[in-house]
């Protein structure tokens, strides 16, 4: 028998962006750990990534609307909130990022305080808040400074930085109340997994089309990825840790604090970015031999991205996003690795699914979906 104390109950739970693929994995982990948990999803699109469990309730609502957010929170009356909403890989226009991410976060925090039931709020942030998408990020720690304009020009990252800071500042209602909402933020590496229509979905399509032989740059840029199931584990670890801290003074040991903190989460196994793409291709049955790799110089890739952006803009009048962009080229040629010592030490986080297993599981899911669509 285990001598470990029983885990705190998470229920009721609210997830923003609850029909996104990261939230899908978090819900699956909650249900496996706490089958009778009452779970509420807040999302603008509730038709995708649904769990059939009757304990999971889906609410169509817009984070940018304070009325919508308060309505759902009053219904859910959550103890635990996972704030995973992100419009980066959705159809939302870039102009909407601030309203969804920043205004939405403030609406969530205001409603959480007003309902009076919330004890723990875990925010899914991004390491993009400390990276300008031009410079390498090597073994980055949580203490690195958040970038501001003009160093940071990505609207998405500027909005996520503002949201992250608001959530950190809201911890314990400004630090004066041991019984206030406890908060923390998680910055994951590049997330992949089943239901990932963004990064992995695009890589899967490229692989099936036999285009994985193309590589931008020299391919020698290590990158930190994280399998979505492992990221979900980290979210639950953080939630349990916050709930255990609730009602107690903040830890005097800065090396053991959870509330008001930020945690990097990865698979703890950096891969070269383009090796990951080729591993996906191999799992689809389209392996790329080393001698077949076509390396396109970064400068040429950026030129191609520039032309692609302008052509698509001219044809669509600015309503469509091109498949190839300069930002995407830079993204795939940078070094981006994160130090996760803090998450290991404080949360006890260890990735349960390794990179190869995660890729195999994810690609098998995509293969099954592709067969259904035939």
From TrEMBL:
UniProt keywords, alphabetically: Oxidoreductase
An MF annotation (GO) of this entry: oxidoreductase activity, acting on the CH-OH group of donors, NAD or NADP as acceptor
BP GO terms, sorted: steroid biosynthetic process
Domain of life: Eukaryota
SUPFAM superfamilies linked to this entry: NAD(P)-binding Rossmann-fold domains (SSF51735)
One Pfam family hit: 3Beta_HSD
Signal peptide residue numbers: none
Gene3D superfamilies the record matches: NAD(P)-binding Rossmann-like Domain
Domain Cyclic nucleotide-binding, residue spans: 198-265
Family: Belongs to the 3-beta-HSD family.
Protein name, entry field: Cyclic nucleotide-binding domain-containing protein
Annotated source species: Talaromyces pinophilus (Penicillium pinophilum)
């Amino acid at each position: 028998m285990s001598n470990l104390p029983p885990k705190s109950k998470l229920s009721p739970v609210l997830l923003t962006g609850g029909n996104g693929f990261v939230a899908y994995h978090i819900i699956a982990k909650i249900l496996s750990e706490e089958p009778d948990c009452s779970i509420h999803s807040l999302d603008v699109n509730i038709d995708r990534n649904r769990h059939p469990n009757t304990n999971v309730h889906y609410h169509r609502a817009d984070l940018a609307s304070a009325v919508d957010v308060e309505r759902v929170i009053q219904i859910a009356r959550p103890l635990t909130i996972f704030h995973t909403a992100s419009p980066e890989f959705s159809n939302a226009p870039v102009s909407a990022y601030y309203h969804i991410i920043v205004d939405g976060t403030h609406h969530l925090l205001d409603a959480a305080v007003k309902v009076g039931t919330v004890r723990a709020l875990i925010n899914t942030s991004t390491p993009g808040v400390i990276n300008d998408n031009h410079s390498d990020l090597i073994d980055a720690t949580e203490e690195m400074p958040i970038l501001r304009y003009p160093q940071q020009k990505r609207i998405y990252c500027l909005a996520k930085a503002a949201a992250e800071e608001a959530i950190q500042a809201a911890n314990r209602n400004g630090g004066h109340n041991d019984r206030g909402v406890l908060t923390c933020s998680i910055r994951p590496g590049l997330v992949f997994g089943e239901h990932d229509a963004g990064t992995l979905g695009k890589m899967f399509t490229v692989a099936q089309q036999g285009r994985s032989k193309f590589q931008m740059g020299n391919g020698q840029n290590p990158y930190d990825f994280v399998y979505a199931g492992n990221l979900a584990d980290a979210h639950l670890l953080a939630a349990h840790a916050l709930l255990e801290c609730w009602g107690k003074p903040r830890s005097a040991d800065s090396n053991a604090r959870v509330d008001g903190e930020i945690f990097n989460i990865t698979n703890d196994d950096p891969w070269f970015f383009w090796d990951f793409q080729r591993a996906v291709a191999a799992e689809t049955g389209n392996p790329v031999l080393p001698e077949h790799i076509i390396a396109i110089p970064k400068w040429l890739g950026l030129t191609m991205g520039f032309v692609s952006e302008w052509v698509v803009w001219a044809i669509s009048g600015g309503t469509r996003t091109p498949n190839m962009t300069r930002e995407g080229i830079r993204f795939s040629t940078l070094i981006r690795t994160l130090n996760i010592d803090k998450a290991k030490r404080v949360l006890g986080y260890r990735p349960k699914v390794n990179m190869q297993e995660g890729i195999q599981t994810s690609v098998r899911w995509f293969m099954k979906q592709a067969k259904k669509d035939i």
